[in-house]
# Entry
Amino acid sequence: MRLVFLGPPGVGKGTQAERLSKQYRVPHIATGDILRAAMANKTPVGLEAKSYIDAGKLVPDDVIINIIRERLKEHDTKEGYILDGFPRTIKQGEALSKTLEQSGEKIDRALYFELPEEELVKRIAGRRSCPACKKVYHTAFNPPPQEGVCTCGTALVQRKDDRPETVKERLAVYRNETAPLIQYYKERGLLSQIDADQSVEAVAKRVQDAIFQKKSS
Ligand code: ADP
Ligand code: ADP
Ligand code: ZN
# Structure
């Protein structure tokens, strides 16, 4: 099961990918998470990516494509994976198709999550994450049992790029650079559209339906 999760920032891709990954025991590969780990470890990639991420811009395609090529060589990807936040440009989409073709593989489905912009802004504004175990919460929609603290005991933090001044830029970048991938996967008969304006459980049900009925839109 090789899946691509496509959609604007804050739509709930990571939340759904995490659930599905546990259920099917396939890795959840999120380029945003890989980049944040690289930044935390101050690796060369992390240092290069920081200025782009902090400004709400995309990290250059060649950097991201290399990261994904290396990640997909790892053994745990044999039975499939969920790509969350990659591809984010047509160039990345083409590179992915080409890489898979070379090993006689293909993407099974691209799920496109849709949500009105005002809801995206609310989801992003309330997002908090655990720097230790990476669990993601929402101050109102998915609060931790104890305010500001993860169930693992660590204090929750807000991503720097989730602050309102950066969010506008990220939404514009999404519209200009990532949204064209909707058409890209539609043309290849791989796209399923998911209404993300529902509870986490209800969206998860739609995800299941999209994967197993292979309904395209
Ligand atoms: P969200 O899912 O909230 O949109 P991510 O965690 O996926 O955020 O990404 C955070 C930031 O990391 C992006 O704004 C961008 O700067 C960078 N990034 C992540 N994935 C990619 C990618 N595939 N191509 C370029 N930049 C990326
Ligand atoms: P993405 O990976 O697409 O950027 P996340 O999965 O990180 O999105 O979700 C963004 C925020 O919205 C998080 O705070 C998360 O807890 C919350 N969230 C995710 N799905 C839902 C949902 N269906 N309803 C309400 N809040 C949600
Ligand atoms: Zn934690």
Q: What stands out?
A: The chain has one domain: 2-117+172-216.
